[in-house]
Design brief:
The protein has one helix and 33 strands. The protein is mostly beta strands.
């Protein structure tokens, strides 16, 4: 039944939609932000997302819906949730972010209903369900959670539901004192036996003035016997907008002991990721490659509303933990199925003269570079992307300081700035760069460090290169591949 309802193909005109990604997910039209309700259900991957189907601005949030067999080729389904009841029907609110679980063959969606009330928004936790994965009915007993422990109605949202043994748990993002009012971030934990009645158990994470005023889109999952908590802090003192923690969890007493804190993605544009298990039991994360005005480095929403759409999701990334409790996020292997090898070069000498790369599709391609740090005499390695009309996006690796930089100060007429991340300077390195019309994902050392960004090049910006500013560098392997459209 679901195949008959799904729209098999989108009709894109890349002459008119130059910035539309070829292999990253974007909505057919209108606004897109947070991924929601990610789940493998009855043989399909279900992707829900925050959506305004009417225009390219954030308001009156719906849940868009798409399905896939491989997490790359998506088919659109009808809107899953629309704001149409007293607890979610508001142009300044709607059906906010949430998650999905399966129980006894039924697909349950959990979301935040948001409406105006008092001096802000009243946010409550709600549920809808479906037997076919397409048509959803909102639970007659909504809201299932009406009041947060702190009593602050406005900052109480984004329920993520998961199971441990025979118990259901829900984490919800919150704030004591308010996100905009210098409050203190919280992640609340609730427990249930039936997905309907929920009991507050305590707090998984508290900012205590160190991690931000509000924790949006929290998630919690187990890897290698450790519990990973992710969230997206508002006004983090050190601008970590994609926080993860690794530690141990005592659910009975609601005690979470943190052993490591890191950043999921240190780039300009990555937010609100959600995790789920694929059909093989791998933990996969998908994030929103965009941002809001209060986020660090945010400048504007870009020009894609000219083309009738706005907002992109990241490539699905498989999560693993290393021996130091550091999270690695690597693109799913299904991405390889749409690649075409353009060039493979081995043991090449790079100097200050630009070594040009020539992907057959100059706006949809991948570059992979690997080498030994001892063979980088110059200290720096530069990669220029989307070059032309005196514009370019630049990646720089500083092997002495251990700093990777993504520089879009001269990428286009819409964006600017540089962003850095510190990396562990090991003997060997590998770099993967994914370029897709208006989004870039830079992945270093098998997903240990990631920088993502939106850029908006003109059609004439088609060149890319590798160079050193002085001396030379020997690279063991440079691979250039073009990527086909998944639409």
């Amino acid at each position: 039944m679901i195949e008959h309802i799904a729209k098999n193909k989108r009709e894109y005109n890349l002459e008119k939609e130059h910035w539309r990604p070829a292999y990253h997910f974007s909505a057919p039209k209108g606004w897109l932000n947070d991924p929601n309700g990610l789940i493998y259900y009855k043989g399909y991957y279900h992707l829900f997302y925050q959506h305004n189907p009417k225009h390219c601005n954030w308001d009156s949030m719906h849940w868009g819906h798409a399905i896939s067999k491989d997490m790359m080729h998506w088919k659109d389904l009808p809107i899953a949730l629309a704001p149409d009841l007293p607890y979610d029907n508001d142009p300044d609110g709607g059906c906010f972010s949430g998650s999905a679980v399966e129980k006894d063959g039924i697909l349950y969606l959990f979301y935040t209903g948001a409406i105006k009330g008092g001096n802000g928004l009243i946010q409550t936790q709600c549920m809808a369900y479906s037997e076919d994965g397409v048509h959803f009915k909102k639970y007659e007993g909504n809201p299932i959670i009406s009041l947060p422990p702190s009593g602050v109605l406005e900052d109480f949202r984004d329920p993520k539901v998961f199971s441990v043994g025979d118990k259901w748990y829900m984490v919800i993002g919150g704030s004591v004192g308010g996100a905009e009012g210098g409050g203190d971030g919280r992640i609340y934990l609730y427990a249930s036996d039936d997905l309907l009645q929920w009991e507050y158990k305590g707090n998984i994470l508290e900012s205590n003035g160190k991690l931000g005023t509000m924790f949006e889109c929290p998630d919690m999952f187990e890897l290698n016997g450790k519990w990973v908590v992710t969230c997206f802090p508002i006004f983090h003192p050190k601008n970590n907008k994609a926080l993860y923690c690794v530690g141990t969890m005592d659910f009975e007493n609601c005690e979470y002991h943190i052993e490591h804190i890191g950043t999921l993605d240190a780039g300009f544009d990555y937010y609100a990721s959600q995790s789920f298990l694929d059909e093989n039991g791998n933990r996969v994360l998908i994030g929103w490659l965009h941002g809001f005005s209060w986020m660090p480095w945010f400048e504007n929403s870009g020009p894609t509303d000219i083309e009738g759409w706005r907002g992109t999701l990241s490539i699905p990334r498989v999560a693993t933990l290393d021996k130091n409790n550091q999270l690695h996020l690597q693109p799913i292997s299904n991405l390889d199925n749409i690649k075409t090898l353009d060039a493979l070069e081995e043991n090449i000498q790079i100097t200050k003269t630009k070594h040009k790369l020539n992907p057959s599709d100059p706006h949809s391609f991948e570059i992979k570079i690997s080498g030994n740090v001892s063979e980088i005499e110059s200290r720096f390695l530069e990669i220029g992307l989307l070059v032309g009309n005196n514009k370019e996006t630049k990646i720089e690796l500083d092997f002495i300081a251990g700093v990777m930089t993504l520089d879009r100060s001269n990428s286009d007429v819409y964006t600017s700035g540089k962003v850095n991340c510190i990396f562990d300077n090991e003997d060997k390195f590998d770099l993967q760069v994914l370029v897709d019309h208006s989004c870039i994902e830079v992945i270093l050392n098998k997903g240990r460090h990631i920088l993502s960004a939106n850029v908006y090049p003109e059609k004439e910006q088609t060149e890319c290169y590798i160079r050193t500013p002085y001396k030379s560098a020997t690279l063991r392997k440079v691979e250039t591949r073009s990527l086909k459209s998944v639409w």
